[in-house]
Recover the amino acids of this structure.
């Protein structure tokens, strides 16, 4: 059987925490920030932990060796 490979796009976008949760960057900070409020821009700084239903898919399909 061939080995399970990690998706190279996923390894650049997601990190696994020690407890197995998936961290990802906040969406909505690439362009068009003039129309967003300063509060929104502050809240979208840094990373966030994904919901468990999304994290399960990421771990199973994209980061099998995570």
């Amino acid at each position: 059987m061939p080995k399970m490979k990690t998706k190279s796009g996923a390894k650049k976008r997601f990190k696994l925490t020690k407890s197995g949760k998936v961290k990802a960057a906040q969406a909505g900070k690439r362009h068009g920030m003039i129309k967003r409020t300063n509060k929104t821009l502050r809240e979208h700084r840094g990373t966030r932990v994904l919901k468990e239903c999304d994290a399960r898919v990421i771990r199973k399909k994209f980061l099998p060796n995570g």
